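Protein fold
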Amino acid sequence: QVQLVESGGGLVQPGGSLTLSCVASGTIFSHYVMGWYRQAPGKERELVARIFSGGVTNYVDSVKDRFTISRDNAKNTVYLQMNSLKPEDTAVYYCYCGSYWGKGTLVTISS
C-alpha cells in the first residue's frame, strides 16, 4: 500500500523558517514527480513546488527565492525548505507523488 507521510509543520513567526519532509513508502518513487501543494482557509489548493525525477524544479511565483524543494530518491523523501515565511504562507501543506497524496501538515505563520 502506497503511503506518503508529511512532517515538519508548526507555528512560526513571520520571517522564520521551516523544513517539511515527506516520506513515501510502498513503491519505487524515483521515477515520479514529487511535490507540495497547499490549501489556505477559504482558498483553493495550489501547487507550491514540484521536482521531477531528473531534478528539474518548478515553483509558484509567490514562493520563488524563499522556498527550496529537494528530493532524496534513496530515501523516497521530498523536502521543502521554507525561509522568510509570511502570514500568507499559512496553510495545510500536502505532499504528492505521482497520483498519491499525503494527509497534510499544518503550517501557521503568526506573531
About this structure: The CA atoms of residues 21 and 79 lie 5 Å apart. The longest strand covers residues 18-25.
